[in-house]
Amino acid sequence: MTYQELASTDDLALTVPSKINDNFRKRSFLNAAAKSATFTVWADDAAGSPKDLYLVTTSTSTFDVTLPAVATADAAAGRVVTIMKVDAAVGTATINPDGSETINGAATVALSTQYHYRTLVSNGTEWFVISSS
Q: What is the pLDDT of residues 51-92, one digit of tens each?
């Protein structure tokens, strides 16, 4: 890969990809999705558009958020995902790892309070919470 120096007059919104790292341009924002029923992280997203942030609304129900197997490409590569409960209703979003995998050694993690979230990453063996509220 070759890099070209940016000129002081370059508009980063319009700069051609050859002048800045194309991956940086694509990953300099978060892909977000609103969810209100059971779903599987990344697998249930539109093709070619996996999400980084899921804003879940539970209402009065409880539903599952299933994490992909840690051996899958995105998880094994260290992709980070955040799941946040955004409503004040009594329902719960339960985060479940695949099969016998764990999250910080636990079988599940529950989000039952408004604006509580978990940011997760895998090391290829299990899931870890790297940020939470």
A: 899 999 999 999 999 999 999 878 888 889 999 999 999 999
Q: What predicted TM-score, i.e. pTM, was given to this entire model?
A: 0.77
* Spans of all domains in the chain: 1-29, 31-132
3-state secondary structure the chain: CCCCCCCCCCCCCCCCHHHCCHHHHHHCCCCEEEECCCEECCCCCCCCCCCCEEEECCCCCEEEEECCCCCCHHHHCCCCEEEEECCCCCCEEEEECCCCCCECCECCEEECCCCCEEEEEECCCCEEEEEEC
Average confidence (pLDDT) over 97-116:
96
| CATH architecture, domain 31-132 | Sandwich (2.60)
